[in-house]
Structures are given as C-alpha cells and as structure tokens.
Amino acid sequence: MSLSGAPSVTSPRAGAWTDIRNSIRGVPRDYTTGNIGRAVMLLAIPMVLEMSMQSLFAVVDVFFVARLGPEAVAILGLSDSLLALVFSVAIGLCMGTTAMVARRIGEGSPELAANGRSFTSIMLGGSVTVMLLFLINAIFRGAGDAALAMRSLWLANLINMVLDPVLIFGLGPFPEMGLEGAAIATTFGRAMGVLYQVRQLTNGRGVIRIDWRRVAMDLAVMARLLRVSGIGVVQYLISTASFLGLIRILAPFGETALAGYTIAIRIIIFILLPAWGMGNAAATLVGQNLGAGNPERAEQSVWFTARCSSAFLGSVGLFLFALAEPIVALFTTEPAAAATAIACLRTISFSYVFWGFGLVTVQAFNGSGDTTTPTWINFFVFWVVQLPLAWTLSGPAGFGPTGLFAAIAFCQSLLAVVGVLVFRRGTWKRRQI
Asked: What span, in angstroms and rounded, lies between the C-alpha atoms of 10 and 39?
C-alpha cells in the first residue's frame, strides 16, 4: 500500500458547489489546514451519503419482508440480533484501520510506501463479505477518500434493491425464496461492492493503493492494528450483546411486539447512519490532525461536527414524532405491530438531539486510537444502566414495551452526557498508535 503523493488543496476561491462536487468526486485535499467548518462539510458529505447507502440495506429489506407478515419481520429482527455480532467484529476492526490510516496520512509519513506492506492486504484473505465491505471503506475514510466508500455502497445497494423483490417474491424466471431471497440479495450486493473496492485499491489511481508484487506480512503493523481494533471489537460486542438483552426482554410480549420493534429500529437505523457518517468524518479529522501535530484543531473539529449532528438529529426527531404513523404505514398495516413501532419511534425521538453528541464523541475517541475509553462508557451505559432499567420499566413497573423504549432513550442521552464529559478531559490527545 502506498500514498500516491501529498493531497492537493482546493482553492479557497472555489465556490461552494464546486467544493461539494469535488467532495463527491473524491478530489484529494488536505483536511489538516484551512477552515474547519469547510473541512468537516467536505469530508462529511460523502461519508453521510455512504452511511445513507448502508442504511438502505436495513430499510429496503424490511420494506419487502413486511409483505410476508409480522412473523417474517419478527424472524428478521431475531436474525438481526445474531448478525449484529458479526457487525461488531467488522466495526471494531474498522476503528483501528481508520485511526491508523488517518494518523499516517496526517503525519505525511511515506513509511508504508517504503516498506510496501499493508495491513489492508492481510485482511483481504478469509474475511466474510460484510467485514471486507466495512474494513476497506474504513481505509478509504481514514485516507480522506470517502467518495470511494460512498460509491461502493451505491453499487451494493442498487444491486440489493433490484434483487430483493425479484428473489423474495419470485419475479420473472426466479423462484419465490422469501426471507432466503432477501439474504441472498443483500449478500450478493455487498459482494459486488467489495469487488469494486478491491478494484479501486489495485488500479493505482486513489490515495491508497496496493502493489501486490510487494505485499508481505508485517507483524509490527498487525500488532498495532489488533491492539487498537481488538478493544474496538469488545466495545461493539458490549453494545451488541446489550441489544440481544433487549430482544430477550421484549420477546415475552409476542411476535407482533418484536415485529413492530424491528420495523422501528430499522427506520431509526436509516436515520442514524447518516449521522454516523458525521461521526466518521470526526474520527478521520481527529486522526489526521493528531498525526499533523495539531490536537487543538482536532478538538475544534469534533465540537463543530457534534453541533451539526445534534441539530440534524434534533430536527429529524421532531419529524419522526409528528409523522410516525404514516411512516410506519409504509411498512405494515397490522394494528398491534404498527402501534408498537409508532410508540418506539416517538419515545426514542426525544433523545435524538443527544445522540448527535454521543455518536460524534465516541467516534472521535476511536479516531484518536483510544478505543478503551468508549468501551468502558458503553459497558456502564448499556449493561449497568440500560438493561436493568429496561427490564424494570417493561416488567415490574408495568409499562410494557414502551418502558423498554424509554430506557433506550434515556441511556442514549446518558451516553452523550458521559461521552462529552470524558472527552473534555483531553487524554485522547496524547494517544500514540
């Protein structure tokens, strides 16, 4: 893997639309200098669009699967809880990848080019498709080349949206496959996205490229990556396992409750993942600016991004609260499942303004290479507070599923408060990776 030259700086006289177009096209630029707001905007635009494409997987699948009835949606929700474990490993690996690539880019260090060794290539063999899709996109984001990550998910989602109805309902010459068809469509779409990613890594035109003739294992690079990513995997396993706990608490209320919760959560994911893209932008800016020896600019980037994310999610929260009924009606007309989904959307919407700060500060820790701090924060919020509170409110307190939704809203707000307080201490600025 090599760095194909120093990033060029877009002229400050360029118009806003030119900047946006260049951002989407993936024109390289230096994010460690110039106006912070402009840097955040130009880096966040393709990342938000990338995460929007990632969120389409969730909403497209449930849109078609819901036509099979509440039982099918409930099965989808239970499957999600298990597949989330795979996503935890993938996202955890991405943390270390983004942090290390961003730090090296910020340092302007050509050591990877000199050695011709890439932890990217180490991960290419034997990984499942979803891990590769997440991991390679993390490399692009760390390098500030978020437009490539965005385009890979555009391709993957386009294929998924076409194949979902064809394979689920058996259109044309294809047999009707139901839920299995949804799984095949999603997996094949992601596989095509991975092939596109690999092509971009090897064609020599991007910021990061692989020269297969010089690939070799570098144990030191692997050790640094695993040190950062290993804790990141634990971080997301903690939050994912708590999600499994919530499913277990909700299960006694029946399949319609699970179906309604699954629909609502997938709508929430569709909304939150673009905001996650802003968090990814903050992570890249933190890594690159720490690498450039400018921790104050890194911190300013985080606060600016967090305010933008909070304003966006706060507006979305108001929108979802007001329009929960017609939105849910797009997915199900079953009264009990719809009522649960509406209650979930409206209850959790109260916490959206806090989620903006929570998502960005946690990703900022990860971008600095400090994956330990958010791991402890997740453990405290999700295991010490959320699970006992969800069980108490939904069961002994008698609020039912709405009590569980209230516990989620409260704990996501708590996560933001704790994240901001710990981030302000500034110990992440001294993190070495």
From this structure: 11
